[in-house]
Design a protein that fits this description.
alpha+beta; four-stranded mixed sheet; 10 helices; two-stranded antiparallel sheet; globular
Amino acid sequence: MQKPLLIIGNKNYSSWSLRAWLLLKAFNVDFNEQLIELFHPSATSILDEHAPTGKVPVLVYGENDEKVTVWDTLAITMHINDYFTDIDVWTGLSNSETKSHTSIRINSAYCQSIVAEMHSGLTGIRSEMPMNIRATAKIQPSDACLTDIARIEEIFADCLKNRSKDSYLFGQFTAADAFFAPVVLRLQTYADASSIELKPTTKQYCETMLNNPHIQAWIDSALKETRVIKEDEAGKIISVVGVLADLN
């Protein structure tokens, strides 16, 4: 099968791009990536060619009548699971193991449910805490945002109970970890600066995710970007790290 191409946006800001990119990396899918500038005219021709919705991420492979185009992060996740890996993305186990025990089926259902919940909901935190990896920023979170954070902490606590302190949500890395990765980065940007107190379990999980080598690689790339996109900036910026800080 031809190596797929993943079209993504600016790594400092594009949370949806991070989800798809991280999933491909975590499940050892060999792919090429093409980064476009969000909200910039230079991206128009690429999006017109490959993205029916005009948004990233988009996964494409094949040519002419055999070209396959997958848009929307949840669709990309399901497609990867069906065609690009022998490891089930919902459990982190081999496909041969996924139907062997009821407990595995329960974990798979839970993982799919919280991925869908993250994909379609939790709009308070997403709108008030846009991903901005290089920044530390202070906001005044609304009740909706704080309710979302409480729900996220409930999910983390429920998944991580009875697991080792450095565990991913279901032990092995799964699609759930990829989908909640931008939340971890949002909390890093805004929580302390905004006096949002997080539970010890949440802090430990955030540390585990931030130590993931693929997330570290994404962060390193994000910190080399210099473009500021006002649409994706929020709150009072306390500090900035990376190349942009060096330029200032």
